Amino acid sequence: MKKEKHGKAVRYNKWGYIFLIPFTAAFVIFQLIPLITTIYNSFFENYMSGLTQVGPNFVGLANYKALFTSGDIWVYTKNTMIMWIMGFIPQLVLSLLLGAWFSDVQLRLKASRFFKTVIYLPNLIMASAFAMLFFTLFSDSGPINSLLMQIGLLSEPYKFLSHTWSSRSLIAFMNCLMWFGNTTILLMAGMMGIDTSLFEAAQVDGANSRQIFWKITIPLLRPIMVYVMITSLIGGLQMFDVPQILTNGTGEPMRSTMTLIMYLNKHLYSKNYGMAGALSVILFIICAVLSLLVFQMVGSESRGEARKWKKIKTTK
Prior knowledge:
By secondary structure, the protein is mainly α. The protein has twelve helices and two strands. It has a two-stranded antiparallel ribbon. A hairpin with a 2-residue loop joins strand 1 (about 45-50) and strand 2 (about 50-60). Helix 4 packs across helix 7. The protein starts with a helix and ends with a helix.
């Protein structure tokens, strides 16, 4: 009997491995091999000087040294993180608020499916189309300036894209508008997965809706929030299309909207593959370190809260 069961398990496992072959092949071809090639190229001098190809010549860590000594990478990292934070914080607050409303059975919101679809629609629009729309709206002779001048708030057109914080705010606002619907759906799914008996027990004990939200919903929602923060952080570090189109690839004013991926794109455009490879590796390390920090800080708290609520539930 044991041999027969073992034989059946082996046959079932065989089909599992067969189904993993397409994913494994795609991962190796499109992710693992390019990653290894990028790391390999980062140790070589390989660029175009006019019509002359220089390299590939092995230079060791010279590309990394050049990136850190120039100081540009620190400026562009700061720009990227500032615009990500400016967009992510209101995105998270808005998504939590909408998720709490839509998942609250007591509110009995009408046409909730319609509103869920509407808030998710901006996520389906191409970022390039979004950037072109905002470029037209906030240009010097655009509708926003015309409206503000007509109602008397401005005497002359305000150059939104010529000031550091207004251009950063526009980019952050666009990223928030494009992604808050996706974040809302994720957080709402997490809220709907919380055991309703916890809410009922809290209401019996006299807790109001605000106390329930902060003491029960938020602590139990932290695993989903860890996922949202890490994926948003990785997406923020890869911010490219919106600032690229909005500033025509210049990162103006004064390179204040130049992101790491825009800086990487300049090296690729000039065919400096050694520097582009080194910058890609540095970006990979930054993503890994920051994601690990977020996971450790928020994940440890969420695991502690989950153990606490599980203990409370078992005692009841």
